[in-house]
Amino acid sequence: MRVTEIPVEGIPYDQLKVEKIPAAPAYAPRDPELVAAADRALVVNPDRTCMPLGAMWAVLGVHRAIPFVQGAQGCTTYVRYTFCRIFKEPATIATASFHEDAAVFGGRRNLVEGLRNLAVRYRPEVIGVVTTCSSEIIGDDMVSFIKAARQNLREELGAEAADRIAVVLINTPSFAGSHVEGYNRAARAFVETLAMARNTSSNRVNIIPGLLYPGDIREIKHLLREMGIEATILFDISDTLDAPLEPPQQIPYYPPGGTRLAEIREMGNACATFALQADAGGSGARWLERKFGIPAVAGPVPVGVAATDDLLQHLSRFTGRDVPAALRAERGRLVDAMADTFHHTMMKRVAVFGDPDTVAGVTRFVCELGMTPVAVAAGTASKRFAQEVEAAFAAYRELFLDTPKVFNGGDLFEFEEYLKTLPRLDLIIGNSKGVDIARELDVPLVRVGFPVYDRFGYQKRPIVGYRGAELLLYEIVNAMLDHRYPDDRTQQL
Amino acid sequence: MEALPCLPGCGAPTIPGEVSSRACPYYGARWLLALVKGALHLVHAPVGCAYYGGSVRGKAYRMLSTALDEKEIIFGSEAKLARAIREAVRLFPEAGAIFVYGCCAAGLTGTDIDGICTAARRRTGRPVVPVGCAGFAGTSQGDGHAIAAAALVRFLVGRAPPDTAAPYDVNVLGEFNNGGDLGEIEDLLGRLGLRVRCAFTGKADITALAGAHHARLNLVHCRRTGGPLAEAMAKEYGIPHLPVNFFGLAATAASLRETAARFGRERMAEEIIRAATTEAAPVLESVRRHVTGLRVGLYFGASRVGMMAAAFRELGMDVVFAGAQFGLAEDYAAAGAHMTVGGRLKDDASQWQLEDFLLRERPDLFVGGTRERFLAHKYGVPFMVFPQKGKPYAGFNGFVNFARDIVKALRAPVWQFIPGRWAHVLGD
Ligand code: SF4
To answer: Which of A125, A292, A298, A343 satisfies CB 3.0 to 4.6 Å to A275 for a cystine?
Structure first.
């Protein structure tokens, strides 16, 4: 069945909006042969970055951990800058400071001396060694370098002090994947290096959140608390990248919180591992499953009603805990909000872009709201992403005004050019990289995902869980209302 | 006699394992070239470099990348680069030039970027400019500034035919129009009857660059970025250069005087200076009452550390720490000359050293960039962002903005809510 556009409160959709401003006059249609990213050698406005960023993001979620980047300085500084801009927090990341000599002779000296300097000056408990395109191309033998560095540390600090510092190697050759894969590899490297099993069965679960923001992780913790479940959250950035302003009395500054080393070691005893974002963290969960037989649940990210239901059901199944009334009430409030607003969301055309897991989750949610996802784009190509969005489409297809177009990989140029060909678009949901597209198309942008650097507080506002979905829903509806909705129609929403 | 702080060593590589704010030459090159209007920026590297280079000084730019993958790293990426350039020209035919940045991966795999650019130049009939700025090709972004400056002079400047009707044209080198600084400077020079032909790179499109060599004088604002350009243009086209500083009343006045003297317009300069200082005086007087004697720490990119130290001093503040990510000895000498006895100068200060300063010295104000900003906040120290956003700090009007912003940073009520001993910051 195909539904034509439903008039809302007597006004047909087409008349709800004042006439659209045409694309900027400077816009000339591009060579159609080269619009599809797949046909190009050139990438224009990429919506993905390189692997090391994901790994650094992960390491910063561990208590008293510092990423050590085996490469030239830019790779470190650019990422620090990116994190500072998103989280409005300091980000402590050390550089191996590659120069001409490292490029010629390899990075052994940089690593051995570097770990020593880092350990002595900053006294971290965990060092996450993150490789880059440079060190991978040079062919640095990181395993043996780290051994040498350890030996060196022992001589200098004494065996006991040296052994207290955990060193985790994360191989992230930038050219072999995006930041999503970098996080994924970090998850695997951490459990592989640190997790142990003591054959004691426990009721704890492991959660690998993926590239979610502090607000999301807080919301996950809230769900777990309400369920009465104890959990290890691997890469818990909820405090480390959202720390209170309470001047420390000593240096170096370490933010509070973060996953404790001891907790990571215990991850081999959990009763299940949930990788909330399958592409970012799934391989850590799968490794724990293979090695210790801990069941792994990878995705979907709990955005919207169905996906949150899913997560709670799984949690309940593995731990034997029931979903408490408090969470049922939260679900009820979300559903109530959906009922209150559906006349504003039904049949609205929306485009979603960003990291694959997040986009898949948001896409499913907008389907639940009765919107038509006309185009969905993952900056990082992913098989799972394609499957997840197709599954969401299959469930809601009869409501769609148009057939959704899926961009799996590709760049924002391709996405933008496609959106320009659409007869109408009501909303874009994506990260801050979409600001120009939204302006060009004169469509509101709801900011979600990585990175959001041009608004305050978005990293603290959850999109996961029932409460997160409710907040996201309001954001979606209000963005459309703010955008050229006739004022005299807003008196009685 | 006051002992000056001793000058730090400069240009040494960062020691491995440090948390440094320095970046790579690619970052430096982007910083300089991003503003060139009408040019495309193509980054030959894995996709990360382009992604990060997409925002410079808080502004977003369209970035092109060859997004190298594993197989191209192993089997070579030259064909892909050549193809990418062809596609770039077809997709954006309006582009006046293409900068091709060769980053770490390209440098390590020995890609012949120069050769490919030369061929592409011939084929496309427009400048295709190789910018070899691999991350390890220098000790900091400063080296990238030099690389970019050399590329500008070699491939873009001087392409316009001779033009003799410009006796009052100047260029401003090392000026990036942060918060509209260039507008203030242009306005002042305009009142002297001088025209800014090209600012590197705050006002630089392909045409302005092509004719920049017709200017009669090069004013060097930021020495670190403008210095190499000035040298190159002096050598190539015989254009004299003059170091200037438009931060602070005294410095702006001195710079105007010297510039005017080169064109025989001293009287005009004096008039401008008299009017402007009289106008600024009352505001500055009231600001001084709030800030005199307060202690400030600075941490900047490079040259501006010296200029800003003087500007803070002019308001009666004590500069107790001045650092730069990649300063030159003369920058530090300039900063040191305006510092308090016992003040510290640091090149490439690490996060640890900054923390040490913030915790132990408890400055009343810290000034720096994004990375230092949130660190200072954690220590409860009022912070001022530089380069500033949204309004000029240069020139006479800019100095008034600057002074007002200091007071805003200091007097924000937030500081009184910080637990412990930080309330003293509020002053009176
Ligand atoms: S250090 Fe190298 S790989 Fe990293 S951002 Fe700079 S040029 Fe790119």
So the answer is: A298
Q: Helix A465-482 crosses helix A214-227 at what angle (to 10 degrees)?
A: 140
pLDDT value of position A493: 67
Compute the distance between CA of residue A372 and CA of residue A352 in angstroms, rounded to an integer: 11
Identify the CA nearest to B52 among candidates B93, B5, B103, B1. B103
What average pLDDT does the structure give for chain A?
92
CB contact under 8 A, B422 and A247: yes
> Residue B71 has which token pair?
């197989």
- Strand (E) or helix (H) holding B367: strand B365-368
For residue range A449-467, list pLDDT tens digits in order.
999 999 999 999 999 999 9
Q: Where are the beta strands (DSSP E) in B133-213?
A: 169-175, 195-201
What phi and psi values does residue A323 have, to the nearest 5 degrees?
-75, 120
- CA distance readout (Å), A307 to A209, A475, B213: 14, 19, 63
- Which atom of ligand 1 sits closest to the CA of residue B24? 6
Separation CA B228–CA B2 (nearest Å): 33
Instruction: Measure B175 CA to ligand 1 centroid, in angstroms.
Output: 25
- Point out the residue among B62, B81, B135 whose CB comes nearest to the CB of A74: B135
B210-228 as b/e: b if 16+ CB within 10 A: bbbbbbbbbbbbbbbbbbb
Nearest to B19 among A88, A93, A132 (CB): A93
ipTM: 0.93
The residues pairing with B132 across neighbouring beta strands, listed in sequence order, are B102
Spatial distance between the Cα atoms of A61 and A64, rounded to a whole number of angstroms: 9
Atom 4 of ligand 1, nearest CA residue: A75
Helix B370-378 and helix B351-361, axial crossing angle in degrees, nearest 10: 40
Asked if residue A181 lies in contact with residue B47, where contact means CB atoms within 8 angstroms, the answer is no
Q: What is the pLDDT of residues B130-145, one digit of tens each?
A: 999 999 988 899 999 9
How is A111-147 classified by DSSP, letter by letter? HHHHHHHHHHHH--SEEEEEE-HHHHHHT--HHHHHH
Nearest atom of ligand 1 to the alpha carbon of A71: 1
Cβ(A302)–Cβ(A464) below 8 Å: yes
- On whether the CB atoms of residues B279 and B396 are closer than 8 A, the answer is yes
CB of B24 sitting under 6 A from ligand 1 = yes
Q: Which region among A176-185, A385-394, A436-445, B382-391 has the lowest average model confidence (pLDDT)? A: B382-391
* Contacts of residue A383, Cβ cutoff 8 Å, sequence gap at least 6: none
Cβ-contact B388, B405 below 8 angstroms: yes
Could you tell me the CA-to-CA distances from B327 to B6, B12, B104 in Å, in that order? 14, 11, 24
Residue B340: exposed, middle, or buried by beta-carbon count in 10 A (0-12, 13-18, 19+)?
Answer: middle
Task: State both tokens at A415.
Answer: 């996405």
Tell if the pTM clears 0.90, that is, is over it.
yes
**In this complex, which of B18, B64, B105 lies closest to A137 when CB atoms are compared?**
B105
